[in-house]
Every structure is written in C-alpha cells, then in structure tokens.
Design a protein that fits this description.
The structure holds two protein chains of two kinds. Chain A is an alpha+beta fold. Chain A has a domain of 143 residues: Butyryl-CoA Dehydrogenase, subunit A, domain 3, CATH 1.20.140. Chain A has twelve helices and nine strands. In chain A, helix 1 packs parallel to helix 4 and helix 4 packs parallel to helix 8. The longest helix of chain A has 35 residues. Chain B is α+β, with helices and mostly antiparallel strands. The longest helix of chain B is centred in the C-terminal third of the chain and has 29 residues. The chains are: A alpha+beta, B alpha+beta. Bound molecules: flavin-adenine dinucleotide.
C-alpha cells in the first residue's frame, strides 16, 4: 500500500513547496482571495499543474493516485490556495472525460498561460434549467474568482459551459484563498457534454481529489492540535496526557488514517481500471464523516485559543466544512455509494480474479 | 409533574422574542459582516439602555431601587435560550454589569456595591463591566493563573496578562482574578476591581475570532498596576461570608446551564433555518433528510430539558452540579450537531458564507469551550459517577 519511489519524490517535492510557499502565507492568501505571485511561479516550475495531462500533450501522465497524494500535501498547508493554483480549477477529470478535443480547446490554453478561471459545480444542487443546449439559472457558490468556464457535474453526466456566465464575488465560509463567486447563467450554452460511465468516472475522480484535500486539512488539524496538546500544560501535565484528550486525539488520528486508506484504494482502483464509482463516493463520504469529528476537535483541543484567528485551527474547521459540502456533499456521495450497492451482491467480497 | 411555562415567563419570552427578531439578530449579523465587535456608540446599545436594559440587580444603597420580581433560574434559562436563538454574541455584547455582578452581590462590601454597581442603577449611557480570569497560560486550570497581586502600603500592585476577556476594553471596571500566593492555588486567589484608565492597565488587543464577533474578546496586560486596598473584592478577610458564597457556588451552578441554554438556542435557530430551507426546496419528502431533522429536533429537546432540570434543581436549592455539567456537555455537542446538519442541508448556500446557518456554525463552537470546556464538564460528572480522582 506504499507509493512507488517516483511518487514519494513527488510527495516530498510537493510538501516542500507547500511548507515554504503556502503555509507561511495562509492568512495573506485568505485576505487577498488568492495565493501570491511567488507561490504561483513555484507551483508552475515544479510542474504540478500538468500532473494528469497525458504525456502526448506534454503532461506527466500520472493518475488518480498521484493526484490524491499531491492534493493532500497541498491542502495540509492551504486547501484554498491548492484549488486556486490549478489552472483547471480541479476540472481536469471533466475535460479528460470529454475527450482530447475538449482538452485541447479548453484545457491547454489555460495550462499554457498558467492560469485559468475554471469553476466546478454539482448541478443537481444548483437552481438551473437545462433545456437542450441552453442553460439558465444560478449557482450559489463556486470556489473560484470570476470564472469564465464552468464544469457542471451530475451523477450520470458532465458538461462544460463557456459563455453566458456572470459572477459576483462572495466571501465564502472557507477556501477564501481560492476566491469565491456566486454565478448567474443567462442564455448560457453547453459547449461539450458526456454521459454514462465516462461521466460517472469523472465524478468519481473529482470526489477523490476533493476528498484528498479534506485529508490534507484533517492531517493539519490532527498534527497541529497534537503538537499543541503535548506542549500545553494544565493540571500539572501536558493536556495530551489527560485521557479525555489522549483518546480524542487517538480517535481523530484513527478517523484520518482509515479515511485515507479508502481514498487511496479508490484512487488505485480508478487507475487500475477497476470499478471505482461507488468506492470513490464511499471514500468521500467517510472523509466527510471524519471531518465532522476532526474539524471542531482541532479547535476544541486548543480551547479558547482554537477559537481565535491567531491559530490555524478555526481556519481548518471552516475549510474542512466547506470542502465537505462540495461535489454534492455527504448526501449525494451516500446516494451514489448506495446506488452502487444495489448492483452488487457481495460488495466486500474479496476480488480473487486477477 | 409540570413542564408548562408560567404566564409571567411567557410574557417575558414574548418580549424577548420581539426584541430578538427586531434588534438582536440584525445587530449580530451586522457585526459578523463587519468582522468586528459593535462599536460602543452603536445605536443598538443606546436602544437597549433606553428600553431598560443593562441595569444592576442591586437594590441600591437604601434597598429601594425599583426592580421587577427576580426571575427564577428556569425562567432565566428559557430567556437565555430565546435570546441566543436570535443572537448569542449580542447577548454578551449587551451593556450591563455582566458576569462579575453575581460575585459583587455575593461578596462585595456595601461600599463596593455602591461604587461599582451604583452607576448601573440609572444608566446615563451604556456601561459595561467584565470578569478576567483566563490567561494565555491557564484557562481550564484556573488554579494555575499567574497574575500576581502584591501588597504595597495601603494598596495592591498587580502584574500579569489576561486573555479572551469579554468587553475588557470598554468596561468601566474589570474584576481581575489574581494570586497573592501561587503556592496555594485557588486558595491564594483574590479578585480586584481595576478601573479603566488605571495606570499600568493597557495593551488591549481585541482578538479576531471565528464567530461571536458581536462582542469583543480582549487580551490585556497589568504592569505595576496599583489599585487601592478598597478595590479588593469583599475587603480584607471576611471568611464566613466568603465560605458561604463558595459553598453555594459549589452546590448550585447557574452559569453552566445558561451556556447550555445558549447552545440549545443556537441549535434551534439552525434547525429552524434548515427546516425553512428544506420546505422551500421541497426536501422534506426525502426520508434521509427528514430523519436527520427529526433526530435533531429530538436531541435539542432533550438538551433543553436537561438544562431546565438543572435550573429547576437550583430554584429548589437542591444540588445540581452533575445536572449543570451534563446539560452543558450535552447541549454544546447537540448545538454543534444541529449547525452541522444545517450546513449539510443548505450545501453550497452555506459555503457561500452569507447564510445565517454558516454564522451559527462558527458561533456555536465556543459553547463547548467557555464556562468550562466539554472535557472539564465530563470530569465533573465523572467525579460524581465513578469518583474520578482529582
Ligand atoms: C469566545 C470566548 C469568550 C471568553 N470569555 C471569557 C471571559 O469573559 N473571561 C474569562 O476569564 N475567560 C473567557 N474565555 C476563556 C475561557 O474561559 C477559556 O478559553 C476556557 O476556560 C478554556 O481555557 P483555555 O482556553 O486556556 O484552554 P486549556 O485550559 O488550555 O484547554 C485546552 C484543551 O485541554 C483540555 N483540558 C484541559 N484540562 C483537561 C483535563 N484535566 N482533562 C481533559 N482535558 C483537559 C480542554 O478541555 C481543552 O480541550 C473566553 C473564551 C472564548 C472562546
């Protein structure tokens, strides 16, 4: 279950980037509604934006496993910045599902320019009417500043909208470093669309990359609060050594480790061409459950300090909550995983065929 | 057995509801949007005082100040829930003698009541007072506070740092907890009135908080801050009275159920908002959603009852320490759950950051931290249930 040496190098490089470029500037990035110029340049230089792009298109040709590993590292520093740094705004899986033509038309120019304003939204949750190729209505929130391209996801279809979008900036409960907009669509048109299993797989991929961002935020909350608890003393010993906190810290870590394995397995299945739609949805749902414990507990372990912006736990709690509401959130993930369950007799049967 | 609300309490609740809807909630939302406490000269405070708020419960030097009948603890809890429903931050921001009033009434000398509560009898302007216990290095472990009080002729010299103190920079006076002998833990502690403007009191820093932005939580320092001997709460040892007050504090706890009631109020607001959203978006037909809303309603009702039970015991002067801690531990958890459910139900609208539920989600977390964290409440209950050693 360990990543290959190649992936470990990638993880190490990403971690170094995140620690040096993102972590020291988390509050500035929130304030500025985007990461700084230096962070953008460094991100581009290490080639993280072309991670999954096929080698034929000058990309690294890596898969979902690489993506989830990288996303966890980035989000352990700043999930909002992680989102904003990607010129495709997390929409690569949608573009890939739509095929090379869409990738070349909508993806490559943004990758070449190292910037894009691409937004993702879960269509069933938006107030949209889609009639034929025409789309009207509104999207309450996307983690993107003034997008000019919108990828709409649904359980069995994904589509791109490239015109008729008006954006209004919103504050956002979290992910402020990604910017944030509320969208109006008037006479917008579907530029490309795909349905069926390719779409379901794209949704699975988006769920996994979002789940991985959640893993990163949760890891940060676990690590930061654990270190704090070992240093802070009350009643004559480190607060971590009071059993109530020791067990809380343990429960948080167990929730994180378990959820991470689900994400990794689902990503591995996706790369291996195995069924992965239900698995990815399950993994995302489990991350959301873990987040319900870990986000607020990170604050709790710091006591009053956790509630104050001088420490990053209040931010982690907000970020985790926000991430857990994207791509349809918990209910849509559980619905998807449940649907998959109805198609299987022994969902946990060990797969013995090679 | 009787769970009804008496007519007088109902009247007060109706009044609170009208005020909450019309004034408190808009003021709370305004502060949250600004990301800063409401300024001292905000019209809300003026109106609050004009309608009779912010007065002391003290009956005045001749014992004759006009006061309505003192509310029972149960009524106070119902009101605390209702007011927090509209805006918990505003309830703390409201002018008045606030947290330290009970200690001054219980322990203060007649001169101190006159000097420090007197200005709150007939308010000429919004006035605040606050209580400062927590320090950067010690919160839950209140016996470990480091702020020192040293006798100096006919006064005391205070040195130390306090943090997260509600309303400290706008308070007329701060009741500062300090130690005269750190080796004695709580036994070595005394409370001192420190008036605003006293030399050595300064370095006020208003914290940026995740929620409850309507009121200031402020850190400050005391550097060779000299106060006269008369500022020692209760004056020089009056052991009997002090011991009596402390015994009462150890037996009946009214503070924790108030926070529990606040948490229920915030949770109820989240539930109502979630229900309204579900109704508007025709989500109530979905079993998954309806079941979660039902469970939430049930848990909030349970938390409310636990909290009223603690209040009822206090009213009957029966010990309520276990019930008070139970209610606080339970209500803070349930309030958080309600806000979480609300967020999950409204989804993207919640992430947008301008829906009331999103604010409630940030506000409610503090209910598990203030007045003894959830862990401390469980310790208190466990001491009684399984004789958990101290
Ligand atoms: C919004 C807000 C308003 C406040 N207003 C005031 C005010 O007006 N006046 C004032 O004096 N203070 C105020 N406080 C401070 C508050 O009372 C403290 O934050 C609280 O008592 C916790 O102390 P601490 O922050 O130092 O956390 P710590 O005591 O350092 O606790 C950190 C963590 O350790 C846990 N812990 C500690 N001891 C144990 C143990 N024995 N077993 C298990 N776990 C343990 C705690 O539960 C917590 O999770 C306020 C705080 C907030 C957030």
């Amino acid at each position: 279950m360990d990543p290959s040496d190649e992936l470990l190098v990638l993880v190490e490089t990403t971690r170094q980037f995140a620690n040096e470029e993102l972590l020291p500037a988390i509050r500035e990035a929130e304030q500025a509604r985007g990461p700084g110029v230096g962070a953008r340049a460094a991100f581009e230089q290490i080639g993280l934006s072309r991670l999954e792009l096929p080698e034929s298109l000058d990309g690294a040709g890596l898969g979902a496993v690489a993506r989830v590993l990288v996303n966890e590292e980035l989000a352990a520093a700043d999930p909002g910045a992680a989102w904003a740094l990607d010129p495709l705004g997390g929409a690569f899986p949608v573009l890939a599902a739509l095929g090379d033509a869409a990738l070349e038309r909508f993806g490559l120019p943004r990758l070449d320019a190292s910037q894009g304003r691409v937004a993702l939204a879960w269509a069933p949750e938006c107030a949209l009417t889609i009639e034929g190729e025409r789309v009207d209505g509104s999207v309450a929130y996307v983690p993107c500043e003034a997008p000019d391209l919108l990828a709409l996801l649904a359980p069995d279809s994904v589509m791109l909208v490239a015109d008729g979008i008006t954006a209004e900036p919103v504050r956002g409960a979290g992910l402020r470093a990604a910017g944030g907009s509320q969208l109006r669509l008037e006479g917008a048109s579907v530029a490309a669309r795909v349905k069926g299993s390719a779409a379901a797989k794209a949704v699975a991929r988006v769920r996994l990359q979002t789940a991985a961002l959640l893993l990163g935020v949760m890891r940060h909350a676990c690590e930061f609060s654990r270190a704090y608890a070992l240093e802070r003393e009350a009643f004559g010993k480190p607060i971590a050594h009071h059993q109530a906190l020791a067990f809380l810290i343990t429960d948080m870590q167990m929730a994180l480790d378990g959820a991470r394995l689900l994400v990794h397995e689902a990503a591995w299945r996706l790369d291996a061409g195995l069924s992965c739609v239900g698995e990815a949805a399950s993994a995302f749902a489990q991350c959301i459950e873990a987040q319900r414990l870990i986000g607020p507990s990170g604050v709790q372990i710091l006591g009053g300090h956790g509630f104050m912006a001088d420490y990053p736990m209040e931010k982690a709690m907000r970020e985790a909550r926000a991430l857990a509401l994207l791509v349809g959130g918990f209910d849509a993930a559980v619905e998807c995983a449940g649907q998959e369950l109805t198609r299987t007799e022994t969902p946990l049967g060990l797969e013995l065929a090679s | 057995m009787d769970f009804s609300i008496d007519p007088e309490s109902r009247r007060r609740l109706e009044e609170a509801r009208a005020w909450g809807r019309e004034a408190m909630r808009p003021a709370g939302i305004e502060a949250d949007r600004m990301g800063a406490p409401l300024p001292v000269d905000h019209a809300y405070f003026k109106r609050f005082v004009e309608r009779g708020g912010g007065r002391t419960r003290w009956a005045g030097p001749d014992g004759k100040a006009e006061r309505g009948p003192r509310a029972s603890v149960v009524t106070t809890l119902l009101l605390s829930e209702e007011l927090a429903y509209w805006d918990r931050g505003i309830t703390v921001a409201d002018p008045g003698p606030g947290l330290p009033e009970a200690s001054v009434l219980g322990l203060g000398t007649e001169e101190q009541k006159e000097r420090f509560l007197g200005p709150f009898l007939d308010l000429d302007r919004p006035r605040w007072a606050c209580f400062a216990m927590t320090e950067p290095g010690a919160g839950s472990d209140a016996a470990a506070i480091q702020t020192q009080a040293r006798r100096d002729g006919d006064g005391w010299i205070l040195n130390g740092a306090k943090c997260f103190i509600g309303g400290a920079s706008r308070a007329d006076w701060i009741l500062v907890q300090a130690t005269v002998d750190p080796t004695k833990g709580r036994g070595g502690q005394r409370s001192f009135f420190v008036e605003q403007g006293t030399p050595g009191l300064g370095d006020f820093k208003i914290e940026k908080k995740m929620g409850l932005k309507a009121y200031e939580s402020t850190s400050f320092r005391l550097e060779d801050c000299r106060v006269p001997a008369e500022n020692l709460l209760g004056g020089e040892p009056r052991h009997e009275q002090k011991a009596g007050f402390k015994r009462a504090m150890a037996t009946f706890n009214a503070g924790r159920p108030v926070i529990a009631a606040n948490a229920v109020g915030i949770g109820r607001a989240a539930l109502d908002e979630a229900l309204a959203f579900a109704r508007e978006h025709e989500l109530l037909g979905r079993d998954r959603i309806r079941d979660r809303l039902e469970a939430m309603t049930r848990k909030l009702r349970m938390a409310r009852l636990l909290c009223l039970r603690a209040g009822q015991l206090a009213d009957a002067e029966r010990p309520n320490v276990v019930e008070a801690s139970t209610s606080k531990a339970m209500a803070a958890t349930v309030g958080m759950e309600a806000a979480t459910l609300g967020m999950e139900l409204i989804g993207l609208v919640g992430v947008r950051g301008d829906h009331l539920i999103e604010k409630l989600y940030r506000d409610v977390k503090a209910m598990d931290i203030v007045e003894g964290t959830g862990q401390i409440q469980r310790m208190i209950v466990a001491r009684s249930l399984v004789q958990l050693p101290r």
